[in-house]
Amino acid sequence: MMALLRRGAFAAALLLTPVGAFADPVQDFYTGKNVNIIVSTGPGSIFDSTARMLAKHMPRFIPGAPSIVVRNMPGAGHMRATQFMFAQAPRDGTYVGVVNNGIPLEQLVTGPSVRFDVRKFNWVGSAGLSNLLTMAWHTSGAKTIEDVMTREVIAGATGVSSNGFLYANVMNVLLGTKFKIVAGYGTSGEADLAMERGEVRARAGFSLSAVQLEHPDWIRDKKVNVLFQTGLKREASLPDVPLMHELATTDEQREALMLLSASVGLGRPFFMPPDVPADRVAAMRKAFDATMADPEFLKEAELINLDIRYMSGARLSELVNGIVDAPDAVAEKVRSAYGREAGAPP
Predict the structure, then answer these.
(1) Cβ-based neighbour number of residue 287 at 10 Å
(2) In which band, very low, low, confident or very high, does the pLDDT at 226 lie, cut at 50, 70 and 90?
(3) How far is 246 from 96, CA to CA, in rounded Å?
(4) Cα(first)–Cα(last) distance of the chain, in Å?
(5) At residue 71, what are phi and psi to the nearest 5 degrees?
(6) Most Cβ neighbours (<10 Å): which of 110, 119, 275, 309?
(7) Does residue 17 or residue 32 have the better pLDDT?
(8) Are the C-beta atoms of 291 and 297 separated by less than 8 Å?
(9) What average pLDDT does the chain have?
(10) Is the whole-model pTM more than 0.90?
(11) Is residue 344's pLDDT more than 80?
(12) What is the DSSP string of 280-295?
């Protein structure tokens, strides 16, 4: 009898509780909506593949289970998508971006002329980390980086803000290599195809994970010679390929190259525009974290050879700020390495 009375009292309390008392504002917002992921590369890239995997699995972990739509926005060496996310994307939580990890360095190098501030983005998390490779096609005659010190090698790139341009140009300015950079390709896939066709003979700043996903035959069948890798530690599968900063001959060069290598640690970074409500950013971070640990997601990623190495949004934000806020003396060395003055347009 007492149990029945207690249940009756509880039911009466529920009836008297205001309708919105148990409402989840984040869930209410996302229910029935689409979330757009803006990818700064064309279809088929590792950024695109990662975004599409997230689009498939991440809705299960977002309150309200919105649909996720992937939209490719290549152009201007990843600058087009970055500028869109900063200045044009709605700031309501329905837009997420993924761009090249060299964008914070671009802000450091060009200073006030860029039309965004990466420190104001809401960093969600990173889905992958691997060293960047600079490679020459097997028929180029360049087997090691020393060969590029004595002979011109044409390298393909999508724009002057892309890794394909930046890392080749850095080596030219700092160490005297002879890369001739053609930076007019619409997508990284077009530049890759140009190397296979012999239009260009090298590609710079190409992540190992991307090569393994997009062109597994390149290293496996020895179609490319890996000249150097950019990162803080050599990849286990490439123990004999030198790191970029190991090629420095002076302390000043090494200091600049170490900062340039730091951006590699950002992996494949996902972020939201500035000024998104904090509870929606927190929900998206939590959903991203849950997806990165989800057995179903990880199993499918392994099946398609998509390398996943997770980093939290909080840690990603710290690394981004550390790059952009580097000491002035080091920043000037990096600008010199890029061959630009502070405030020069990208």
Answers:
(1) 23
(2) very high
(3) 36
(4) 78
(5) -125, 125
(6) 110
(7) 32
(8) yes
(9) 89
(10) no
(11) no
(12) HHHHHHHHHHHHHT-H
Q: Is residue 78 within 8 Å of residue 162, measured between CB atoms?
A: yes
Place of tokens 């990466």: 118
Rounded mean pLDDT of 114-134?
93
pLDDT digits (tens, 9 = 90+) for 25-54: 999 999 999 999 999 999 988 899 999 999
- What is the C-alpha separation between 82 and 116, in angstroms, rounded? 8
Average pLDDT for residues 263-272, to the nearest whole number? 92
Q: What is the mean pLDDT of residues 240-259?
A: 91
Give the residue-averaged pLDDT of 277-291: 98
Beta pairing partners, 228: 134
Residue listed under structure tokens 């974290």: 289
CA distance 330 to 254: 11
| Beta pairing class for 179-182 and 153-156 | parallel
Give one word for 141, left, alpha or beta, with left for phi > 0 and alpha for psi -120 to 50: left
User: In the chain, which ranges are continuous DSSP H helix?
Assistant: 2-16, 25-30, 46-57, 79-87, 103-110, 163-175, 188-197, 208-214, 216-220, 251-262, 278-292, 295-303, 313-324, 328-338
**CA-to-CA distance for 137 and 148, rounded, in angstroms?**
13
Nearest of 274, 310, 315 to residue 126 by alpha carbon: 310
Alpha helices in 227-277 (DSSP H): 251-262
Angle between helices 79-87 and 103-110 (to 10 degrees): 80
- Cα distances from 283 to residues 37, 62, 262, in angstroms, run 16, 7, 28
pLDDT band at 8 (very low <50, low <70, confident <90, very high): low
| Cα 261 from Cα 283, distance rounded (Å) | 31
Domains of the chain: 25-129+267-338 (3.40.190.150), 132-263 (3.40.190.10)
* Residue 21, φ and ψ in degrees, nearest 5: -65, -35
HSE-CB at 57 with a 13 A cutoff on CA atoms is 21
Cα 330 to Cα 154: distance, rounded to the nearest angstrom: 29
- Among 212, 184, 191, CA closest to 49: 212
Q: In terms of Cα–Cα distance, which of 38, 198, 12 is closest to 103?
A: 38
- Which tokens sit at 123? 């960093």
**Residues 160, 341: Cα–Cα separation, whole Å:** 14
